[in-house]
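Re: the 563-residue chain
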Amino acid sequence: MKKIIVLLASVSFVFVHANAQGILGGKVTGNFQTDIQMSKEDKTIGAQKVDEKLLSNTFANILYTNGDFSAGVRFESYLNPILGFDKQYKGSGVPYRFVSYKKDFLEITAGNYYEQFGNGLIFRSYEERNLGLDNAMDGVRVVARPYKGIILKGVIGKQRYYWDDIWQNDNGLVRGIDGEFSLSEMIPSLASSPVSLSLGGSFVSTYEKAGTKYITRNNDNYKLNLPENIGAGAVRFNFGYNAFALSGEFAFKGQDPNAVNNYIYRKGNAQLLTAEYSIKGLGIRLEGKRIDNMSFKSKRTETGNMLNVNYLPSITRNHSYSLMSMYSYATQINGEIGFSADIMYKIPKGTLLGGKYGTSIKLNYSNIHSLDMTPIDGYALFEAGTNGYETDLFSIGEEKYFSEINLEINKKISSNFKMNFMYSYQEFNPIAYGHAGNPMIYAHVAVIDGTYKLAAHQSIKGEIQALFTKQDYDEFAKGNWFQYGAEYNFAGHWFLAASDQWNYGTEQGDKVHYYNVSAGCTFGTTRFSLSYGKQRQGIMCIGGVCREVPASNGMFMTITSSF
């Protein structure tokens, strides 16, 4: 608390002093959100008793801007963290504060900041509040734009780790540089050309004291020689010609024995390649990704979602429907290879299938496999103190992690009524969540929803979802599901919704109804929502990064506001 008071006093002093110098007179903006949860014990769904009766997550941002100067703070309070968030977040404080200034071609930030190099394969500092993930950097960032089409970046600092004093703990130091060169902007003759081309490159290194780590092999103890400086580099390109675009990034990482890869010495690499074609009414996107031993953290003993230096994006589709996302895929950072394809087509108006308003069709396919790994002679796969395994660049392993094919059709029936139809077939391997040995899950999922505009600023929405699978053996496979719900919106300010998710196809437990009712209102920039019901245990994934959501039974309230 003393640190908070000192910080707020310091900020106040700076603002008052700045005002005396004629710098104030800028703009102050901010936003606020609080999530409040009450949950009771429910043995049927596995909801545990909440001793505190009430849990809450709260944050408030305040940003001051005046020309090229900006400064901000974020207050956070977890008293105590809502279910599913790491209990190490418990507490209150100001974990994020910064000042930033632009001068000539330089932009300098001191304090906390978020940044990303390319696609993030070797560096991404970001926040994903719904996952409880925040690896904000604390240090200095410099961005230079010395010439049109050239952007240079430099970062140095440490990453946030819950409420720890990162400058007193042994978490590693992160340093990085990045450059991007847009030839289309740098060369005047290319400005009006249908060709666009940009090139980029990055280098990031971490420093952490070696410490001491022993392994046991054949009843003998061996001390590992742990590197203190670990480097990673990446190159990328973006090429475009009229309606066609091609982009790619290729990353490499030095020896990095850590807890995630079981302390092997194999070097890491990653490749991401994307091709797109887009014209009026048609869009095609192809993606390929390969990950090989790319865990990259600023502390080698960390195994959770914190202290990730890099980000390995997922190429599978992110679903908004709950049953569609029941078997979401988590990126396998120790090794995976896969591809995806998306086709989007708009059937023109006035045709037989397009009708009066046209019809949108989206087709998606994705397939992710393991790498074809061969053990080092005389050792097991991923045996500590060895190179771990051998594999070829284009090798595809026999083990399938995930595959999906889904079809979505959006159709406007009349000026007041529109519908959405979606079907998905998914094959999911529980090993993606660390449950090796469980059989593959095969699921068919179908969704129908429709929205009808009753009058000005009034609408009603209905939804039906169904999931069919024969697999029924633990919390990751519980047979068939059925869900239905309705939502009413009034005057653009009020809504009322109700739904029921029914696990009617399970043979291993009770056929539970996960009902939920919710209501809310919006006035200006303030929104209030309240819900009551049951939440099933499951996995929440965003961009290939996941966290477990425990079962709950009770109330959930959210208030958001901005100014």
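Residues 2-20 form the longest helix (19 residues).
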